[in-house]
Amino acid sequence: MSVMTEKNTYLNYINGAWVKSHSGDMVKVENPADIHDLVGYVQNSTAEDVDRAVAAANEAKAAWRKLSGAERGQYLYKTADIMEQRLDEIAACATREMGKTLPEAKGETARGIAILRYYAGEGMRKTGDVIPSTDKDALMFTTRVPLGVVGVISPWNFPVAIPIWKMAPALVYGNTVVIKPATETAITCAKIIACFEEAGLPAGVINLVTGPGSVVGQGLAEHNGVNGITFTGSNQVGKIIGQAALERGAKYQLEMGGKNPIIVTNEADLDAAAEAAITGAFRSTGQKCTATSRVIVQSKVYDRFKEKLIQRTKDITIGNSLKEDVWMGPIASKNQLDHCLSYIEKGIQEGASLLIGGEKLEAGDYQNGYYVQPAIFDNVTSDMTIAQEEIFGPVIALLKVGTMEEALDIANDVKFGLSASLFTQNIGHMLSFIDDIEAGLVRVNAESAGVELQAPFGGLKQSSSHSREQGEAAKDFFTAIKTVFIKQ
Ligand SMILES: NC(=O)C1=CN([C@@H]2O[C@H](COP(=O)(O)OP(=O)(O)OC[C@H]3O[C@@H](n4cnc5c(N)ncnc54)[C@H](O)[C@@H]3O)[C@@H](O)[C@H]2O)C=CC1
Ligand SMILES: O=C(O)CCC(=O)C(=O)O
């Protein structure tokens, strides 16, 4: 049976076969740019489906971990080649499922392919260190072993890159995988899994189960057959998953929200800073955990900078993301649109001034989608809800400060610590920013979003569980260290 059966219906992938859920039910996936565009149906899976997938992953793990890293890497190279041939199809599917523009989806798919190739190469890199023993007749070294079965719970906002940056290192370091993608983008995930299938991955090494987070996601987090859980999504769900894993001694990794600031000082290149604030805040319709949501500006340049932001925002074209001239697509779902509009309302109620945007778009071509105008708020204070909580939509909160110290205090005055950006030509400001900013990604004269696959990614405070994803750092999560001592 193939990935898809009749009526645009996509199946689970368990033990090397595309199968229906035990429930017999399906969930509809529609295009947020136009809800009459039905992307397809995915399985509404149950705890039994999770059990079957976890059993298959456990069955496959002994043979998979016994392959050399280089052999496992070869499967990833093949998967990358297959994905490259399908780049346009996968990107178009991601755009239809969650509404980011086609160039963004193509860029993300290319990034997924590059991640596969990066981790394919990891299969041939070192797995340990020789450490001198105090005993001259002994050899002491470290080696690494896989965790076993890894559960991947992924969100909808990066439907290609996030599943791949979790699955590729899990696989190359010798783990088997059960993935539960967000339902909104489960078809894109099925298409990625089909690339792994065609690359010839042995049955059970990779498994896909779609369905509700509270059943399939939680089922994985609580399952005794799952040795590690890697999650990206909301803070609320991350904490539930972390607790479930901790309860049964499984390893877990959580990447959650951000409330990322950009600081613009008196000496900054204001045009570059304005462009970075706009792209950081409004690209992908603001739905990135690294998105800029607070723009903290020194008073001498505040009015000039504000004017530049407003002008640039007026140029933004909003519409169906499959169309070429569209710069910003819809919000990914009705829930997310309502969530975003409720924050805009709250900003107004709490006394911030809405400078531009913030309206739901409903007329003409917008009537069947989830569209909102990008919004900029002035007169925001750090205690306001829009300056504290993750909105995950195209909304900027502007805050005026006198000094760099004040800017840093405000930037750090949130529970999150994912990404932060500074625009300045002042080296002293750069150094204090690098030292004092509470963020895992520190960016100078660059926008807050923008992650390179070969570097560690993760946050401080409540943005993550303090481990790091991507680059070599992924090895720390997906393996366990053994310290070996050998004496003649
Ligand atoms: N850090 C990030 O990149 C992301 C952050 N978010 C934040 O979360 C907010 C809500 O978005 P949602 O899509 O509802 O996020 P979510 O945290 O509910 O969803 C993320 C993943 O977790 C799964 N899930 C849901 N409940 C679960 C449970 N009890 N146990 C295990 N897995 C579960 C979902 O099905 C999905 O696959 C957004 O407004 C945004 O603030 C959402 C997506 C990505
Ligand atoms: O900025 C990026 O490229 C990655 C962002 C991300 O990981 C997320 O939004 O979940």
Automatic annotation (TrEMBL):
The active site is at E255. The keyword Oxidoreductase applies. Residues 18-484 form the Aldehyde dehydrogenase domain. The keyword Oxidoreductase applies. Keywords: Oxidoreductase. It holds the Pfam family Aldedh. InterPro entries: Ald_DH/histidinol_DH (IPR016161), Ald_DH_C (IPR016163), Ald_DH_CS_CYS (IPR016160), Ald_DH_CS_GLU (IPR029510), Ald_DH_N (IPR016162), Aldehyde_DH_dom (IPR015590), AlphKGSA_gudD (IPR054869). Belongs to the aldehyde dehydrogenase family. This is 2,5-dioxovalerate dehydrogenase (Alpha-ketoglutaric semialdehyde dehydrogenase). It comes from Bacillus atrophaeus (strain 1942).
